[in-house]
Write a structure and sequence with these properties.
With 119 residues, the chain is mainly α. The chain has helices at residues 5-8, 20-23, 53-61, 68-75, 79-91, 106-118; strands at residues 39-42, 66-67, 95-98. Strands 2-1-3 form a three-stranded antiparallel sheet. The radius of gyration is 18 Å and the shape is elongated.
């Protein structure tokens, strides 16, 4: 690489400086069962200023029911990292979770896939 070393980490393509392993303190499995479709919502029991920045951002994102996939996308973190951190908030009573009841069935998803392939 060319240029001074201090410029190397300022490039947007370098990605986050705090690696996922650091965010989860090395944990790789969430303590709660969460799917990408699970909806999470803040309970208001824990103020965002009382937790680390990533957890605080999650609490802000979860003011309204939000899927785990959406939280993961907003944080730009892998789903497993998001699930581990959301599990912390669940364990602390800061968010609740539920599985949506209006999930499409397999036939609907296959019809959608077939239609997309026709495009």
């Amino acid at each position: 690489m060319s240029g001074p070393p201090e410029k190397m980490w300022l490039d947007n393509e370098a990605g986050p400086l705090l690696r996922p392993y650091s965010l989860t303190n090395g944990r790789t499995k969430p303590s709660a069962t969460l799917s990408l479709q699970s909806l999470v919502r803040s309970t208001g029991r824990l103020a965002p200023d009382r937790v680390e920045p990533t957890h605080a951002r999650m609490l802000e994102l979860c003011r309204f029911a939000t899927s785990v996939a959406e939280v993961s996308a907003h944080l730009r973190q892998p789903a497993v990292v998001t699930k581990v951190l959301l599990s912390d908030l669940i364990d602390w009573g800061a968010i609740t979770t539920r599985v949506p009841t209006d999930m499409p069935d397999r036939e609907q998803l296959e019809a959608l896939l077939h239609g997309l392939r026709q495009l």
